[in-house]
Amino acid sequence: MTILDGPDCTTMAEVRAGVDRLDTELVALLARRFAYMDAAARIKPARAAVRDEDRKAAVIAQARAEAARLGLPAEVIADLWERLVEISIAYELAAFDRR
Question: Which fold has domain 6-98?
């Protein structure tokens, strides 16, 4: 089945195929993001350096601004990024502890 862009879908099968494809791509992108968390855990000199509230705020603000630029609900994206960053911090702390 050809994967259509959302606005071109006329059936739920087309919508679901597109969402499934995007979910696969999103997981691959998250794997790349978590590889950066592994690198950060390897590079940072101390466990206390893992949590950086200024950086967290900047990452969330950047996601909020990009969402607004794309016409998406900025606060929803900011909430999603808040969770993503917290999960990433927990992952990085675990990676730090493993090294």
Answer: Chorismate Mutase Domain, subunit A (1.20.59)
